[in-house]
Design goal:
The protein has 2 helices and 3 strands. The protein starts with a helix and ends in an 18-residue tail after the last strand.
Amino acid sequence: MRHDELTLRLNGWRLATAEVLYYMPDHPSVLQSFMWQTLDLAPEYPRIHKFLDFWRREIDAVIHSVRLASGETLAPPKISAAGPILHH
């Protein structure tokens, strides 16, 4: 993990995956899928929105829908008391 990536992750950024379902204007009955991952900041997801704005402006493919999944933030480990592991 690069230093700048670690800094972002420690500040709440997390890996986000966007699946864009789209079709080309000349084949509107055929849905295609495009997957993209980036570090992003929930719940606004500024990088995903910037990417989708670029897509709408510059790419002929028409977006049908977008599914988003994101991982957990990177944080210090949580320690909790565990019960006994050996029973007599």
